[in-house]
Design brief:
The N terminus is likely disordered. The strands form two sheets. Strands 2-4-5-6 form a four-stranded mixed β-sheet. The chain has a two-stranded antiparallel ribbon with strand order 1-3. The protein is of the alpha+beta class and about 290 residues long. It is about 45% helix and about 20% strand. The chain starts with a strand and ends in a 5-residue tail after the last helix. Strand 5 and strand 6 form a beta hairpin. It is built from nine helices and six strands, in the order ββαββββαααααααα.
Length: about 290
């Protein structure tokens, strides 16, 4: 991705997003409010310009946001949100997952027909704050995967949203309340002790997966090297949410990456990952000894 700074343009939105709102847990409520919310959030993500970068249609960033609403009292919605970020692999027909995370602290006020409006200065309410936070976080992660520390401006913007919302009284934003909330997720990418995960994003994807199509051994070697960053995070912050995000995004993929690797390389990767993910024995064993096809 090569971002070029151009004057604001109404047709330069960054995302190709799918937003779903699941209300199956809610009984006896007019479902139209959830349908309207889903339509509004799809429009918000796909029609808002979150930066001054211009992306070609084929460069638009693919993401998926799945809201599950478990409580609704006519004004207040509570539930969770699964967020996934998808990236194309260079010169390949397949994609890779950059980010896969379930946010269990979703609460916001919304009544049927409420406008969902973007405010570039500061979010108007907790719903738009959540959407803006994830938009900038995903932009930061995506840009990091194409150039070293390339997403810094988006992490800075996400940090501003977190700081602003910490005084709102809404859950999910306070730094020390939860090691898996939005503040903790952002901190895992920006804290100096764990920010090596951002170097992994670039090396794993740009130097690794993108190279594997034309040079499998070279690309896989870069991925193997990138995993050292994971070990560094584990050594200083074994409970970091960055480790679980990587697990949920990448472990299945790593089984495929190393399916044709030499035994010594597979063993090296297994030995590195096993202390980090001791409960993932099945997938780690498949890395060490690939299933017969």
């Amino acid at each position: 991705m090569t971002g070029v700074i151009l004057p604001l343009c109404a047709s330069a939105q960054e995302f190709r997003a799918t937003v779903e709102v699941n209300s199956q847990k809610i009984e006896g409520t007019n479902k139209s409010v959830f349908e309207t919310l889903q339509q509004s959030l799809n429009s918000y993500m796909n029609e808002t310009r979150f930066s001054d970068y211009t992306l070609a249609p084929n460069e638009k960033i693919e993401c998926r946001l799945f809201f599950t609403i478990s409580e609704y009292d006519g004004q207040r919605m509570k539930g969770d949100l699964q967020v996934q970020l998808i990236r194309p692999v260079y010169n390949a027909t397949y994609t890779t997952t950059l980010f896969n995370f379930k946010d269990n602290k979703i609460e916001f006020n919304y009544a049927d027909g409420d406008p969902v409006i973007y405010n570039a200065q500061q979010p108007d309410n907790n719903l738009t704050a959540i959407m803006d936070y994830y938009a900038n976080l995903l932009l930061g992660i995506d840009f990091d995967s194409f150039s070293p520390q390339g997403g810094q401006r988006f992490f800075d913007r996400a940090q501003s949203i977190v700081q602003y919302q910490q005084s709102s009284g809404e859950i999910g934003w306070r730094t020390f309340d939860d090691n898996r909330n939005r503040a903790a997720v952002l901190n895992s990418y920006t804290d100096t002790n764990t920010a090596g995960i951002r170097d992994l994003l670039y090396q794993y994807h740009r130097k690794g997966l993108d190279e594997m199509v034309t040079s499998p051994d070279k690309g896989r070697a870069a991925i193997t090297e990138s995993l050292q960053q994971l070990k560094k995070v584990f050594d200083v912050a074994p409970m970091s949410v960055a480790l679980s995000i990587f697990r949920d995004s990448k472990l299945d993929e790593l089984v495929n990456v190393y399916s044709k690797a030499p035994e010594t390389e597979r063993t090296t990767v297994y030995d590195l990952l096993q202390p980090i993910y001791p409960t993932e024995s099945q997938r780690l064993n498949d890395i060490k000894k690939p299933p017969k096809r």
